[in-house]
Write a structure and sequence with these properties.
Strand order of the largest sheet: 6-7-8-9-10-11-12
Order of helices and strands: HEEEEEHHEEEEEEE
Oligomer: single chain
Length: 256
Amino acid sequence: MGMLWRLLAGLVLMLSLLLAGPLWMLASEEVATGRHWASAGREPAGLAPTPAEAPEAVVQLYAARAWGWRGAFGVHTWIATRAAGAPQWQLHHVMSWRRPALVSETTAAPDRAWYGSAAALLADYRGAPAEALIPAIEAAVADYPAPQAYRAWPGPNSNTFTAWVVREVPGLEAVLPVTAVGKDYLLDGPLAPAPGGRGMTASLGGVLGLTLGLDEGVELNLLGLALGLDLRRPALKLPGVERLGMAPLVKGTDGG
């Protein structure tokens, strides 16, 4: 009986640690839950260069807090590409309220806020590297094995899609935040390269996993929520809160 109580106490402690960050985000109103999605802001963040500012090819990856209460737990991620000289961007992501779930669309502002949540840049490739990546990205998007599937937890979802494309395209790397719930939902077996490019992820159904990488550091996935330690850019990674410490690495822009 004593062992059972210790197991229960350990489980309660683990759940408390995992949920503390998301509950704090809700209590501190860091995520908006009281307004209708149709009235939420969609302003560009000023992160996507115009053709006049950068006429060369550009590939960017973004993340923004998910809509409503889900934003306390995680982010929505997407991929944007623009060919050299093109006036518009191609935006690729998986959405939960459209069918098919995988959406590829043309836009002039790929860095728009995600229904009230500002976009953050995860990767930024330009010039010859971006030009080489774009056809490979388009091919990977077309080959995504779960184009009509969406499950907020543990996946597959928008973050599963982004992580899968990053892993499929040689030379495309991005350090996805621990709040990208679903990034560790692996579609091709229990082992895969870390999205940052120099490490590995092991995962069981997206609910239990471990990532070790030069750019990710150490990340432990418990019940779909991840926590860890970034050693390269020192920071504590926490569910909901995301990071306490240095700003994350932006692949391409920051090199490596």
